[in-house]
Amino acid sequence: AQPTIEAALEEGVRFFDTAQQYGEGESERRYGRYLVPKYRDHIFLMTKTLAREATSARADLEGSLRRLGTDRLDLWQLHSLDSPEDVDTRAAQGVIEVAVAAQAEGKARHIGFTGHASPAAHRHMLERHGEVFATCQMPVNPVDAATDNSFVRSVLPELQRRNYGVLAMKTLADGHFFARKTMVGEVKWETDRPVVPDRLTIADCIGFALSLPVSVLITGAENPELVREKAEMARHFHGMSETERQALAAKVADFAAAGEVEYYKTKIA
What we know:
The protein has 269 residues and is α/β, with parallel strands linked by helices. It has helices at residues 2-10, 26-34, 36-39, 54-68, 84-92, 95-104, 119-129, 142-145, 151-154, 156-161, 202-210, 224-235, 242-251, 253-258; strands spanning 15-17, 44-49, 73-78, 108-114, 135-139, 165-169, 180-183, 186-190, 216-217.
């Protein structure tokens, strides 16, 4: 963790993403040990809560601050909205009120929400409570743009209209653009139809996201080498037109239709 964090800082990365449930708090504890003590005043620190009711949300907030070793977050987000009903449940159970209170207390400079399953959940949150939040985190990739159930096409325009900070994630579909993914020695999946490199390159996918009106691209980087690779791609990115983005989406339209790559999405729009 420490060399990866140091490499990110050396490459100019200043936005750091984590969440209360990542590794049962271990991700936050590692930031609290290797990132926050030396660099708190130089970074933008974000974490999230999965809480569905107010008491748990407040406990998550206090626990995150304690593990991170800080008295304030730059951004605290309601994590992983999975349906319009989920939005309504969290609102009815006081989670949004806890987030607003955290901001008023100075424990969170900004508040937002995230989700990867349902564009409808994001649209519902914007319709019902859009004035409360400042950011939205969601998948941004060419396969998403080729689907009917698309965050890029059905959520991003409204975020632009509201002047939200847009946090792009799952730019490589949680690694499902590749034939296989190995984590701690375990092969998570294998396929003879990978998106990368058969149809697209990693640089294509990074450029697709960076060419859209996103505030930050949150990308997985498990070691210093991957951090440096992504940073180099960002430095060499010189723009992408709408026509070029559409061409990339067309290359993966069959993956979008099959629904096998963005496994984390619900089937409903």
